[in-house]
Amino acid sequence: MHGVFFTLSIPKPDVTADASQLQQWVQANKVCHHTLLSSLSNDLFDVYCSYKESREIWDSLILIYIAEDVVRQRFIIANYYRWTMNNEKDIKVQINEYHKLLRDLKTEDEFISELLIEKLLESWTNYKQQLKHKHKQMSLSDLITHIIIEDTNRKESVATRTKAMSAKANMVQEKPFHKRYVNKTDHNNKKKYKHNNPCVAPSNLTMCSCF
After folding, report:
1. 164 contact partners, CB below 8 Å, separation of at least 6
2. Shortest CA distance to 66 belongs to which of 58, 54, 77?
């Protein structure tokens, strides 16, 4: 904003430098030094007000707070890689947990999407392969919508199959049991047939001559 950022990387010119160049750096350093100190809290102001060059203040702040950010970032990344999906929780709840992990995770949106795909359960393997073969990379928000729709369709499919199997089982239970009748010789009918047909000789008698 003030055009003095170069003093944070360029040290003060020595006495042999051009006078105009030295004066330009001194003026820029003064503005940058004031800007940095005015942005600090009271406690930090007391620490850095004695520093003469703005670059010294900047380097010290970087050394302290960037190191803290690195440690914090490593902790966040470790939490992220330990997090896995499971079958006990609803998919929407797990997506919300994923969002919480990403709040402080500084990375590209497409990279985050790829990591979410890898976090899906093993039962989603075919779905994961379909996503990987898509020509256009989806944003994180589009991917989450896609996953929720897929999860809803899976649940509806399971419910439909369960309902169909239950209806089939009920039909089998309600269907009457048909007895299988074994063909047996009706001796009474056989005797009547032999009595009414004189040409048929009983097995224990000799056949009579009908002609």
Report:
1. none
2. 58
